[in-house]
Amino acid sequence: MHPEDRRQFQRLKLPRPILATLDGESALLLDVGVAGAFVEHHGTLALGAHLTLSFRWQDAELDFMCEVARSRFVREGVSHTGVRFVDSSVQSQHQLHEMMATFVRRLLDAQRANASGNHDSERLLGTMGEARRTRSRGFVCYEWQDGAWKHETTTSSRQPPDGFTVPAFEDDDEIATLCKTYERADEEGRNLIRLVAELSTSGVKK
Q1: Tell me, what CATH number does 13's domain have?
Q2: Where is pLDDT greater, at 194 or 82?
Q3: pLDDT of residue 188
Q4: Dihedrals φ, ψ of 92, to 5°?
């Protein structure tokens, strides 16, 4: 993922590509996040072009109006393109969140099969990744800087370069567990935490 995209939103690398279409043309959905996706397709797409990404999940049709953020050839006649979601129905957004939560739970189940897994943090991540919960307004941004945590309340759900932003709530023990897990995690583990954190901020009142 491009560094600027990483600061804007997290994407979940799918275990297997999902069949999709871009403006009716065949494509493969490779990665997906709450704000964009990464797709493989034939031909080229111009930077800034608007098009519709469609795919199915559990018998539901999901449609997103997208803007091309970047695109490059990977082999003859085939390109990989990152798109930002600019518009969608409430139903498509809900189905996307449910799809991502399902994949996150599968990842956590795989970690639980590993004896080195941290079960307290896994339960917390699984809870954060579920359907919307009632929380306080706004968000809290936790940023890992020079070996220490800095945090501040904010009206933005934007994820920081190193750390995570979650909906505001009062359970300090949960946040302490999440911070410790983030400190110990490798890059893949930190990306998972950031992804679940971003998923948990969707639909929260600012």
Answers
A1: 2.40.10.220
A2: 82
A3: 77
A4: -65, -40
